[in-house]
From TrEMBL:
GO terms for molecular function: DNA binding; DNA-binding transcription factor activity. The keyword Translocase does not apply. Residues 10-64 form the HTH cro/C1-type domain. SUPFAM superfamilies: lambda repressor-like DNA-binding domains, RmlC-like cupins. InterPro entries: Cro/C1-type_HTH (IPR001387), Cupin_2 (IPR013096), Lambda_DNA-bd_dom_sf (IPR010982), RmlC-like_jellyroll (IPR014710), RmlC_Cupin_sf (IPR011051), TransReg_Diox_bact_type (IPR050807). One of its GO terms (cellular component) is cytosol. Keywords: DNA-binding, Transcription, Transcription regulation. This is XRE family transcriptional regulator. It holds the Pfam family HTH_3. It comes from the Bacteria.
Amino acid sequence: MSEEKIQINLKAARMRAGLSLARTAEMTGVSKAMLGQIERGESSPTLATLWKIAKGFHLPLTAFLEDRVQTTGSFTPALPHPKALGATIGYQTVFPFDPVFGSETFLMTLEPGQSHVSEPHDSGVVEDVFVTRGAMEVLRDGDWQVLRSGDGLRFAADQPHGYRNLTGEIAQFHNTIHYPRTSLSDG
Protein backbone atom coordinates (compact mmCIF):
# COMPACT_ATOMS: atom_id res chain seq x y z
CA MET A 1 0.00 0.00 0.00
CA SER A 2 1.48 3.34 -1.05
CA GLU A 3 0.34 5.23 2.08
CA GLU A 4 2.36 2.80 4.19
CA LYS A 5 5.42 3.33 1.97
CA ILE A 6 5.04 7.10 2.31
CA GLN A 7 4.70 6.78 6.09
CA ILE A 8 7.82 4.59 6.38
CA ASN A 9 9.89 6.61 3.91
CA LEU A 10 9.06 9.98 5.45
CA LYS A 11 10.01 8.81 8.93
CA ALA A 12 13.18 7.12 7.61
CA ALA A 13 14.27 10.26 5.72
CA ARG A 14 13.59 12.44 8.76
CA MET A 15 15.45 10.10 11.14
CA ARG A 16 18.46 9.72 8.82
CA ALA A 17 18.69 13.49 8.54
CA GLY A 18 18.37 13.81 12.34
CA LEU A 19 15.40 16.16 12.07
CA SER A 20 12.55 16.80 14.46
CA LEU A 21 9.02 17.14 13.13
CA ALA A 22 9.24 20.88 13.80
CA ARG A 23 12.45 21.26 11.77
CA THR A 24 11.01 19.09 9.00
CA ALA A 25 7.93 21.34 8.92
CA GLU A 26 10.17 24.40 8.54
CA MET A 27 12.16 22.70 5.77
CA THR A 28 9.16 21.47 3.77
CA GLY A 29 6.41 24.00 4.42
CA VAL A 30 4.14 21.14 5.55
CA SER A 31 2.74 21.56 9.05
CA LYS A 32 4.16 19.58 11.96
CA ALA A 33 0.68 18.18 12.63
CA MET A 34 0.29 16.95 9.04
CA LEU A 35 3.77 15.41 9.02
CA GLY A 36 2.97 13.57 12.26
CA GLN A 37 -0.34 12.32 10.84
CA ILE A 38 1.42 11.05 7.71
CA GLU A 39 4.09 9.25 9.76
CA ARG A 40 1.44 7.64 11.98
CA GLY A 41 -0.61 6.57 8.96
CA GLU A 42 -3.53 8.77 10.00
CA SER A 43 -3.52 10.88 6.83
CA SER A 44 -2.88 10.28 3.15
CA PRO A 45 -0.96 13.22 1.68
CA THR A 46 -1.93 14.78 -1.61
CA LEU A 47 0.54 14.77 -4.46
CA ALA A 48 1.10 18.50 -3.85
CA THR A 49 2.02 17.79 -0.20
CA LEU A 50 4.40 15.02 -1.27
CA TRP A 51 6.11 17.42 -3.67
CA LYS A 52 6.66 19.87 -0.82
CA ILE A 53 8.17 17.12 1.30
CA ALA A 54 10.41 15.86 -1.52
CA LYS A 55 11.54 19.40 -2.31
CA GLY A 56 12.32 20.10 1.35
CA PHE A 57 14.51 17.00 1.56
CA HIS A 58 16.04 17.64 -1.90
CA LEU A 59 14.92 14.15 -2.95
CA PRO A 60 13.01 12.91 -5.98
CA LEU A 61 9.29 12.28 -5.51
CA THR A 62 9.72 8.51 -5.88
CA ALA A 63 11.92 8.55 -2.77
CA PHE A 64 8.69 8.70 -0.78
CA LEU A 65 6.61 6.42 -3.02
CA GLU A 66 8.83 3.39 -3.45
CA ASP A 67 10.15 0.66 -1.13
CA ARG A 68 13.33 2.30 0.15
CA VAL A 69 14.50 5.84 0.79
CA GLN A 70 17.93 7.33 1.37
CA THR A 71 18.85 10.94 1.99
CA THR A 72 21.48 11.07 -0.76
CA GLY A 73 21.28 10.88 -4.53
CA SER A 74 21.78 7.09 -4.48
CA PHE A 75 18.12 6.23 -3.87
CA THR A 76 17.10 2.67 -4.87
CA PRO A 77 13.36 2.30 -5.58
CA ALA A 78 11.20 -0.75 -6.28
CA LEU A 79 7.75 -1.40 -7.80
CA PRO A 80 5.32 1.13 -9.32
CA HIS A 81 1.84 1.81 -7.98
CA PRO A 82 -0.98 2.99 -10.27
CA LYS A 83 -2.89 5.01 -7.70
CA ALA A 84 -3.78 8.66 -7.26
CA LEU A 85 -3.40 10.17 -3.82
CA GLY A 86 -6.50 11.92 -2.55
CA ALA A 87 -8.29 13.84 -5.29
CA THR A 88 -5.10 14.93 -7.03
CA ILE A 89 -3.80 14.25 -10.49
CA GLY A 90 -3.41 10.53 -11.21
CA TYR A 91 0.05 9.04 -11.56
CA GLN A 92 1.94 5.80 -12.04
CA THR A 93 5.68 5.48 -11.73
CA VAL A 94 7.17 4.41 -15.06
CA PHE A 95 10.86 4.80 -14.18
CA PRO A 96 11.71 5.50 -10.52
CA PHE A 97 14.52 7.93 -9.79
CA ASP A 98 17.78 6.81 -11.35
CA PRO A 99 20.88 8.55 -9.98
CA VAL A 100 22.84 7.80 -13.16
CA PHE A 101 20.41 9.84 -15.25
CA GLY A 102 19.21 12.14 -12.45
CA SER A 103 15.58 11.69 -13.48
CA GLU A 104 12.30 9.92 -12.80
CA THR A 105 9.32 9.38 -15.13
CA PHE A 106 5.59 9.14 -14.39
CA LEU A 107 2.48 8.40 -16.44
CA MET A 108 0.09 11.15 -15.36
CA THR A 109 -3.69 11.19 -15.85
CA LEU A 110 -5.95 14.23 -15.93
CA GLU A 111 -9.68 13.64 -15.74
CA PRO A 112 -11.96 15.83 -17.88
CA GLY A 113 -12.00 19.37 -16.47
CA GLN A 114 -9.20 18.63 -13.98
CA SER A 115 -6.26 20.94 -13.40
CA HIS A 116 -3.16 20.80 -11.23
CA VAL A 117 -0.84 23.72 -10.52
CA SER A 118 2.58 22.90 -9.08
CA GLU A 119 4.79 25.05 -6.93
CA PRO A 120 8.31 25.58 -8.26
CA HIS A 121 10.70 22.68 -7.77
CA ASP A 122 14.34 23.14 -6.70
CA SER A 123 16.50 25.42 -8.81
CA GLY A 124 17.54 23.83 -12.09
CA VAL A 125 14.80 21.15 -12.21
CA VAL A 126 13.47 20.59 -15.74
CA GLU A 127 10.36 18.68 -16.81
CA ASP A 128 9.53 16.92 -20.07
CA VAL A 129 5.86 16.37 -20.90
CA PHE A 130 4.82 14.02 -23.72
CA VAL A 131 1.08 13.56 -24.34
CA THR A 132 0.12 9.94 -25.01
CA ARG A 133 -3.69 10.31 -25.00
CA GLY A 134 -6.12 13.17 -25.48
CA ALA A 135 -5.27 16.84 -25.22
CA MET A 136 -4.18 19.07 -22.37
CA GLU A 137 -2.60 22.38 -21.57
CA VAL A 138 0.67 23.09 -19.77
CA LEU A 139 1.29 26.30 -17.82
CA ARG A 140 4.82 27.61 -18.26
CA ASP A 141 6.18 31.14 -18.20
CA GLY A 142 2.72 32.33 -17.16
CA ASP A 143 0.96 31.07 -20.31
CA TRP A 144 -1.08 27.93 -21.04
CA GLN A 145 0.16 25.97 -24.07
CA VAL A 146 -2.08 23.39 -25.79
CA LEU A 147 -0.58 19.93 -26.34
CA ARG A 148 -2.25 17.05 -28.16
CA SER A 149 -1.43 13.35 -28.37
CA GLY A 150 2.11 13.05 -29.76
CA ASP A 151 3.17 16.55 -28.68
CA GLY A 152 6.01 17.14 -26.25
CA LEU A 153 7.32 20.08 -24.27
CA ARG A 154 10.39 20.69 -22.10
CA PHE A 155 10.35 23.52 -19.55
CA ALA A 156 12.02 24.88 -16.45
CA ALA A 157 10.09 23.50 -13.49
CA ASP A 158 11.77 25.76 -10.94
CA GLN A 159 8.97 28.23 -11.54
CA PRO A 160 5.18 27.89 -11.12
CA HIS A 161 3.79 25.46 -13.68
CA GLY A 162 0.68 23.36 -14.15
CA TYR A 163 -1.41 20.99 -16.21
CA ARG A 164 -5.09 21.11 -17.13
CA ASN A 165 -7.57 19.17 -19.21
CA LEU A 166 -10.36 21.34 -20.59
CA THR A 167 -11.72 18.54 -22.80
CA GLY A 168 -14.44 16.00 -22.07
CA GLU A 169 -12.02 13.05 -22.31
CA ILE A 170 -9.17 11.74 -20.17
CA ALA A 171 -5.70 13.08 -20.99
CA GLN A 172 -2.55 11.08 -20.24
CA PHE A 173 1.05 12.17 -20.49
CA HIS A 174 4.54 11.06 -19.59
CA ASN A 175 6.20 13.46 -17.18
CA THR A 176 9.97 13.13 -16.82
CA ILE A 177 11.57 15.20 -14.08
CA HIS A 178 15.28 15.95 -14.45
CA TYR A 179 17.10 16.93 -11.25
CA PRO A 180 20.43 18.78 -11.31
CA ARG A 181 23.05 16.73 -9.47
CA THR A 182 23.53 19.46 -6.85
CA SER A 183 19.87 19.42 -5.74
CA LEU A 184 20.13 15.72 -4.83
CA SER A 185 23.47 15.88 -3.08
CA ASP A 186 22.61 18.86 -0.83
CA GLY A 187 20.18 16.81 1.32
